Amino acid sequence: MNIMNIIKKYGTLIGFLSIIIFFTINLPTTFLTANNLINISQQISMLAVVAFTMTIVMVMNDFDLSVGSMASLSGIVAAVLFSMGYPIWIGIIAALLVGIIGGLFNGFLVSIIGILPFVATLGTLTMFSGFAFLVSGGKTIFGRDIPTEFSSFARTGLEITSLDIKIPFLSILALLILLIVWFILEQTIYGRRLYAIGGNTEASFLAGIKVKQLRLSAFALTGLGAAIAGLMYSSRVASSNPTQGSGLMLEAIAAVFLGMTMSEEGEPRVLFTLLGVLILGVLDNGLTQMNVDSYIREILIGFIVILAVAFSSITKRRN
Amino acid sequence: MQKLELLNLSKSFSAFKALSDVNIELLSGETHALMGENGAGKTTLIKILAGILKPDQMVMKIDNNIQKVNSAIDSKNLGFNFIHQELNIVSYLSVAENMFLSHPYPMRYGALINWNKIYKLSKDALKKLDITHINVEDKCASLSTGDQMLVKIASCLIKTETSPTLYVFDEPTAALTIQESEKLFKVISNLKKKKAIILYVSHRMNEILEISDRVTILRDGLNVLTEESSKLSKEKIIRSMIGKDLSDNFPKKTGKLNDKVIIEVSNGHTKNIKNINFKINEGEVLGISGLANSGQREIFNMLMGIDNLVKGKLNFLNKIYKPTGPKDAWKKLISFVPRERRRDALILKMSVKFNTTLPHYAKLSKFFFLANKKKENNITNELSKKVQLKYKNNNQSIYQLSGGNQQKVVFGRALASNPKLLLLDEPTRGVDVGAKLDIYKLIRKLTKNGCGIILNSTDLSEIIGMCDRILVLKNHEQYKIIENLDVTTKDLLSNFYEEKKI
């Protein structure tokens, strides 16, 4: 194996390890501690859920740009129902339903009507965001309107007394969704078919795969993931505002892209998406601790994503 | 320019000799037809002229001066033009803009486009070929395919200082109506008057004899004949194209035909084909034949449920068959090997196992949703052995296999369900001789077990060597069905060129 092959295969991983080493050296007392790692796991949990479910559509070479505004909308829907006095479970179910319906609508536009995913979900991004403002009246819903049982979910966790740590429920939830997505994509024939569509849509159709129905359903799952992330966010900050999810979409796509640089043939794999999420989360956490300006953080993260994808494109072209 | 000579032209692709020691002399003011069966080397020769392929050996002389074509740009600078079915037309630009695609726009004050001049020059170029019915300000999308072709031809005449020297037409009339073809022939004769050299590639015998001055015939990469058209007949051309009969290479049929009907199509019409009537018994191979794009693909589309039946009836295994799509067809034990394996059949970056099991996931699953890796591996092993696949292991990516082995994976997949009817669309295209024979043997084995087969192939010797009956298509309509008893390639070809008696 020559040096280019090593870079192609392990480049992103090596990059990740160097980032960890860099922060460990620069933040010797605070970075590599159990508390900080648990903290990171909680910080990235929303992004992780969105990125995992984003992987499902990206397996088919599709995109969903609307996940961020869907996360905002679902949080708002739940909060508005809470403020109207409905029980928590109704708010949660309503929010999840909104996610599924919005995702189905995306799938309908992309797969039945035949609009490019980029254009279709750019349109629904704006629509969902508008709905979020409409439903909330443009205001943040907080304070007594949000039941404490709902917000305490994010503040509690599984206590492991022997190690004296508490694993936040948000992190556990993200891990659970990782397992589910991994199971769907890697272990079921449904996942196989999605990868087949991503590899060659026409061949899949001629081999008897119902391409339209599968694309529709995959978008629904991505919508559901976005809705879950929206609820997690609302629970964590004990409030909902119509722009809460706006940063999620770009970072989720970036995480999947980072993950794709690590897989054998450049296809999205959800376990690699997890690594992508970790890279973004660790960078954010470490740079914040080092008091790096948030604008510079954004520049750095964007640059790293481009760097990783550029590297894998170049090495692929050589093969 | 008076004369363009290609001398000692040779080109091989690894072991395969596409062209060996071909000599062709083209004269200005002449329409020179180039003929030959598929794989005879016509396309290779054209690509070499276009600078897309590099010959292993060639001397090109223009008026006795040696010239080199190392790239597409060299070819263009020599004044070579290429017109094929797929035109390089930007449909949302105007005729004039399309004509100026490869020329610099005339400018005003060095910054503004001089539209008047563009329109005028375009009109002039069209006029040179007596084309007056096309408005240069119209969008190309509103033009017929034939008119788009004329625009493309005329665009080579925009520049007046260097007149084009060579026009290569590659099956130009395949997509044209009769009237459009007539217009094209008029333009070609105008080009001739302008002393251009015309190299005309076509399978259409009547056309060739009508418009060409001389004919060169290639067979297996060799120039077997160059002769004046007036001294040629259809029969002589066909004989030279085919050479000796190749049907001896096909494995003999064993076992008898059963009279149990597998599929019966009565009066089948879809939006693309008309009047399809045939019956296939157990163990029978029905060949589909005809000129390119005469409805071959559409017959498969009808049987796979991609194109809906608008009239007529399908009967499969004594039951009315109304396929709702490929999934339904596979489920009912109809397997399909599509024409272009890389585009329509395989997922190149995925593994042998992934591709072999693709249509059968549901059947191989546990509880209808869990992928059963063990079962998948077993069936892949079994099928790969059956089709004699040469590969490393089940997880090897498809793109690492040779063309013949890729096709064997597609075959293995088709066999997984023990199909009752197997649809083969050009199953041996781009497959080496050894793999071809393996595929033929496989077809024989399947028919012996009672599978019915529909085989479409442009390789006529394959049709004759393998099929029991041959369905001839003409203009997306069934022309006739021939019992394959002592049919020769020549008989078959003359069927294609026969005009239908009304």
Could you write a compact summary of the structure shown?
With 319 residues, chain A is mainly alpha-helical.
Primary descriptors:
heterodimer; A: about 325 residues; mainly alpha; ABC transporter involved in vitamin B12 uptake, BtuC; two-stranded antiparallel sheet; two-stranded antiparallel ribbon; 14 helices; about 5% strand; globular; B: about 500 residues; alpha/beta; Rossmann fold; 2 domains; 6-stranded mixed β-sheet; 18 helices; 22 strands; about 35% helix
Write the layout of secondary structure elements.
The complex is a heterodimer of chains A (319) and B (502).
Chain A lengths: L2 H24 L7 H10 L1 H14 L8 H17 L4 H26 L3 H20 L4 E2 L5 H8 L1 E4 L4 E4 H19 L1 H11 L1 H6 L4 H27 L1 E2 L7 H13 L9 H20 L4 H25 L1
Antiparallel strand pairs in A: 1-4, 2-3
Helix pairs in contact in A: 1-13, 1-14, 3-8, 3-11, 3-12, 3-13, 4-5, 4-6, 4-11, 5-6, 5-11, 7-11, 8-9, 9-11, 12-13, 12-14
Chain B lengths: L2 E11 L2 E12 L3 E5 L6 H8 L7 E6 L2 E3 L4 H6 L2 E5 L10 H5 L7 E2 L3 E2 L1 H14 L16 H11 L10 E5 L7 H16 L3 E5 L3 H7 L2 E6 L2 E7 L5 H9 L18 E9 L6 E6 L3 E5 L6 H9 L6 E6 L2 E2 L5 H6 L2 E4 L3 H5 L6 H6 L3 H4 L8 H14 L16 H13 L5 E5 L7 H16 L3 E5 L3 H7 L2 E6 L2 E7 L5 H9 L5
Parallel strand pairs in B: 3-10, 3-11, 6-9, 9-10, 15-20, 15-21, 18-19, 19-20
Antiparallel strand pairs in B: 1-2, 1-4, 4-5, 7-8, 11-12, 13-14, 13-16, 16-17, 21-22
